[in-house]
């Protein structure tokens, strides 16, 4: 993947469970729970389709230990292979918690498109 993905607007009500969709299946090493991942990602709000974050815009990938990430990423990235692109639709409880949780994205359903560049 060499370019920032467009995140398609999803019609209908927000899902109440994590939805995982492989847009591109990778053929490299597999991400494992508790491991470290090197990713490019775009995040948008489900309701508005507005982008709230993208590593692409900073010009460099992000390297994270999975246990430090939101629940949706902890559940949705393991099993993904390097070279893959996966979309996660994350209900609030697996993202930044219920409304009033103190984060600007609390209470919101989020969509992430994640490119897995490497695992550690």
TrEMBL record:
This protein's record includes keyword Isomerase: yes
Keyword terms of this UniProt record: Isomerase, Rotamase
Residues covered by the PPIase FKBP-type domain: 34-120
Molecular function GO labels: peptidyl-prolyl cis-trans isomerase activity
Reaction(s) this enzyme catalyzes, per UniProt: [protein]-peptidylproline (omega=180) = [protein]-peptidylproline (omega=0)
Family, similarity comment: Belongs to the FKBP-type PPIase family.
Name of the molecule in the record: Peptidyl-prolyl cis-trans isomerase
Source organism per UniProt: Aeromicrobium marinum DSM 15272
Taxonomic lineage of the native organism: Bacteria, Bacillati, Actinomycetota, Actinomycetes, Propionibacteriales
């Amino acid at each position: 993947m060499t370019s920032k993905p467009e995140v398609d607007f999803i019609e209908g009500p927000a899902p109440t469970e994590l939805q995982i969709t492989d847009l591109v299946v990778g053929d490299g090493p597999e991400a494992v729970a508790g491991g470290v991942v090197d990713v490019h990602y775009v995040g948008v709000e489900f309701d508005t389709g507005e982008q709230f974050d993208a590593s692409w815009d900073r010009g460099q990938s992000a390297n994270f230990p999975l246990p430090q990430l939101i629940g949706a990423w902890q559940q949705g990235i393991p099993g993904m292979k390097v070279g893959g692109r996966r979309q996660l639709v994350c209900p609030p409880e697996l993202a930044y918690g219920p409304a009033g949780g103190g984060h600007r994205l609390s209470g919101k359903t989020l969509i992430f498109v994640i490119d897995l560049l490497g695992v550690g």
